[in-house]
Automatic annotation (TrEMBL):
Protein name as catalogued: Transcriptional regulator
All residue ranges annotated as the HTH cro/C1-type domain in the record: 20-72
SUPFAM superfamilies the UniProt entry points to: lambda repressor-like DNA-binding domains
A GO MF term: DNA binding
InterPro entries: Cro/C1-type_HTH, Lambda_DNA-bd_dom_sf
Organism field: Pseudomonas solani
Length: 105
């Protein structure tokens, strides 16, 4: 696994695009097949595999088609390692906005 803490965002995008393409090929699917099943255009899938901007919805749809939705669901899963973490998470879930601190612009 790559240490994602010491790389640039573009490098993470490139790595994930390579993995996406490899997963599609391992499953023996063409871009047209994945796009059709995901309900997106072939150009959109091509852009996604090339690291160009696409709607996040398209990423989710492709993950679903490739059977990788579970990994995507873990993306922003809270890390609850202590009782304090759980309490902070529960309190934060009730909050709608983050208040600005004095001096913030």
């Amino acid at each position: 696994m790559m240490n994602l803490g010491l790389v640039k965002p573009a490098e993470v995008v490139e790595l994930l695009c390579v993995r996406l393409r490899q997963e599609r090929l391992i499953q023996g699917m063409t871009q047209a097949e994945v796009a059709a099943r995901a309900g997106i255009g072939v150009g959109t899938l091509s852009n996604l595999e090339a690291g160009r901007s696409v709607a996040f919805d398209s990423v989710v749809r492709v993950a679903m088609v490739l059977g990788r939705l579970e990994e995507l669901e873990l993306l922003f899963m809270p890390q609850l390692e202590s009782l304090d973490d759980i309490l902070r998470y529960e309190q934060g879930a009730q909050r709608q906005r983050v208040k600005r601190k004095a001096g913030d612009v």
